[in-house]
Amino acid sequence: MINNKNILAIIPARGGSKGVPRKNIKDLNGKPLIAYTIEGAKKSKYIDKVIVSTEDEEIAGISKKYNLEVPFLRPKELAEDDTPGINPILHAVKWFHENKSDFEYVICLQCTSPFRKAEQIDDALENLINKDADSIVSVCESEVSPYWMKRIENGVMKDFAEGNPFYSRRQDIPEMYRLNGAIYIAKTEVLIKNKNWYTKNTLAYVMDKKSSIDIDDTIDFKFAEFLMREDNND
């Protein structure tokens, strides 16, 4: 709780995954991937309740081994490849409301960000509440600037962002940021109304490159394993 506001954190974890089969519970340096997010969320000093939303019995079982609540199994139709990411979050919020338990703020913590820290979750939450914004979403500095991106038409290379100035030196390019998928927080009433994390009053929470690693495929997995081994050797 922060400023007398109840906080619900939801860890969405479906069983299917195209890039890496069973990704959310795949072993990463001795622990299932989901464990890193569970442990980080439980270390938060503000979150009142942490749950996993899944349709998968095995994921539910592993989550419970890490002493995390799995109050329901979500419907299979909310765990398809084309299911919008916001839908399982809204489903969980509705489930708690129907069971007489409401929260002023809701957080989404995806399993694919194993380097995200509890301190970053709390810092983002503090920023959101202190500025009384609608929501806050984590970002990191973009590795590739859209000013240097190209598109191809009939084999001919053209600027992706036409009409923008040309920058020959990286240090002259304006700073750009991308979503990193690590932290999403919103006022619950705003999220229900807009069915989206983004409004005209959404803040950006800037995270460092390592904390922003998002595991999507096998290469990402191997890179995360390498970094964790390096950390253990320090």
Automatic annotation (TrEMBL):
Q: Which Pfam families match?
A: CTP_transf_3
Indicate yes or no for the key word Nucleotidyltransferase. yes
Q: Which domain of life is it from?
A: Bacteria
What keywords is this UniProt entry annotated with? Nucleotidyltransferase, Transferase
Any one GO molecular-function label of the UniProt entry: nucleotidyltransferase activity
| Keyword match Transferase | yes
Q: Which InterPro entries match?
A: CMP-NeuNAc_synthase, Cytidylyl_trans
Q: What is this protein called?
A: Acylneuraminate cytidylyltransferase family protein
